[in-house]
């Protein structure tokens, strides 16, 4: 009989701290509906992880969450029970191990051993045997070999194949194909772009900061927006003085372009009162306020959630002028009909255009979310048109390319109202190529390097 007295037992290895932090963040996201970016930033701060450790931890968290559906398809064939019956902790440990084995350059032996040690520490000795056995099986093939094994063949079921090979739920692949009008190679490129973390893009708010100021701080000029600069290699925007003072901000180039397009739309007569009907957290409101200030226009920003209205105030703090932030419901205007000259309706949406930014979002969203948002999107656009004067312009904007949230909303509202027309928005961004067939425009991560922002320009008649 072996001697199991503490003196003779081999000392237990301690789990690798970075992997443990990553695992705990993933647990918060999957078990408490947390947001990966918020939970990760807090954990990196609390655990004082920086440099290579922080980068490793970020890749573990983001990659495991982003590729979750693909890893589940692989794991399903390597676990004797249905995954839904597996303890959620165990499933997260298996996903985390699979990510290291299949999509990171971690040595297989080290990845399995580290995950066994971590499992023993966080979930108990009995589970570590199963993790060991399953991960060893996963380690026997490459990512591409597993895809051939578990995904349908692309000739038989293209969307099924892409869903697994590119880690997007099938309904999202289908919605993107509809919006792109293609199921060809472009769809592949879009899904790939969604799997890459986005660049950090800054905005120099006009009249308050120059792009050159940002370039002096290490950024490089972006391609399309006259106000944009890209912080190469990540970097901490908070350390740039123009950003910390609110003269510049962090803002996707696509968001800058759609706000700029609204400001550039031709207008006859008064051009002094601008409205942002769905303003929180205020990135577009701040850019519009800065542009408007140079032209003698002031902006009113509406947001129903008090904490988000506070963010709008903070974003506007550096822009002088008579700007107003109203806490209220944009579908119930407290101002007379036709009060404004330009109106932005950047409505709540599914966010399918910003999947690069939120690794967990694609698995959380459902087609029902899209359907549920539809009435509010229509009411807000209707209210935006009612708020603009005759001859004034409305920009209907979403951060999703889903046709149910974009063109279908616009068509439905215009058909009901009969006092507004769609104008060609593409001419407002003359330097930006491939904006679609018009009259509305769609930006794309794989073409423009932006979030998939949609813009329809509507004029009240
Ligand atoms: C897509 S975000 C707007 C982003 C913002 N324009 C920016 O660039 O920072 C949509 C916003 O609409 C707000 N919202 C939700 N319901 C609303 C309503 N009934 N009226 C006005 N805004 C609403 C949400 O709270 C959210 O802050």
TrEMBL record:
Family: Belongs to the class I-like SAM-binding methyltransferase superfamily. RsmB/NOP family.
Protein name: Transcription antitermination factor NusB
Pfam families in alphabetical order: Methyltr_RsmB-F, NusB
Species of the source: Kribbella koreensis
Annotated ranges, domain SAM-dependent MTase RsmB/NOP-type: 176-461
Keyword field: Methyltransferase, RNA-binding, S-adenosyl-L-methionine, Transferase
Keyword ATP-binding part of the UniProt annotation: no
Domain of life assignment: Bacteria
Active site: 399
Residues binding S-adenosyl-L-methionine, per UniProt: 278-284, 303, 329, 346
